Amino acid sequence: MRITGLFRFPVKSMAGQSLERVEIGRGGMPQDRRFVIIDGQATRAGKPLTARLVGDLLAYRAWSDNGRVYVDAPDGTRYEPGAALADALGASLHRPISIAEMPAGEPMHDAHDLLVICVPSLRALEAEWSKPLNPLRFRPNIILDGDDLATYTEDGWAGKRFAADDTRIAGVKRNERCVLPTIDPQTLQHDPSLLRLIVERHQKCFGLYCHVEQAGNIAVGDEWKML
Fold this sequence. Notes:
Elements: E1 2-8, E2 17-19, E3 21-24, E4 35-39, E5 61-65, E6 68-72, E7 78-79, H1 83-93, E8 97-101, E9 114-118, H2 119-129, E10 142-145, E11 161-164, E12 167-176, H3 193-202, E13 205-214, E14 216-219, E15 225-226
Parallel strand pairs: 9-10
Antiparallel strand pairs: 1-2, 1-10, 3-14, 4-8, 5-6, 6-7, 9-13, 11-12, 11-15, 12-13
C-alpha cells in the first residue's frame, strides 16, 4: 500500500489543494479547514454554510502557501479570506456572508483529523454506479493504492494503527456520507443516485476517518504500513 494522493481544503466546502508532501499533527494537515463560511441569511444566521446546501461553493478553489490562504474565484479573481471575499461570495450566492477563522489547532472537521479513501474501493463503487467517479467527490486527505489493497478492506480498519514515514495514524471509524458526494466537483451537477447506492449497499459509508497519534511528514509515494 502506498500514498498516491494528498489533499487539503483550507476553506470548508470549497475545492482544495493537491500536495506532494505535508507535515501533519494535531488536527491533521496544517491549513486544512482553517476557514469556514458563515451564513447571514435570517433563517440560518450564524450557521456554517457548506456545499451540502450551496453546491456552487465548490467552484471556488482554496489553497495555501507559506501559511497564507488564498481563494481563486470562478472568474479568476484571487482573494484572501476576509471582507472582499465575503462580499464577492455574498453577491454570487445572493445572501449575506461572513468568513470565520477557526482557532489554531481546531479545524472545522466534520469528525476527525484525516479522511482516507482507497482506489480499489473507489473503482468498485464506480463499477456499481456504472459512472465515472472523481475521488474528490469524497474530499479525502489521503488516497491509498496498491496491489495488496483489497476492495473495501478499509471498512475493517477502525481500531488499527498505521505508519507512513515517521507519522503514526489510527483508524477511528467509517465515514458516513452526506449529500456532498452527489455533486460532481468539476461540473457541479447533482446526482442523488450515488448517495442512494452508498446507503443501500454500504451502510451509507465510504472511506475511513483517522486520528493522528504521532506528528510527522508524509509524502506521495510513501508506504502505508499496518502496525
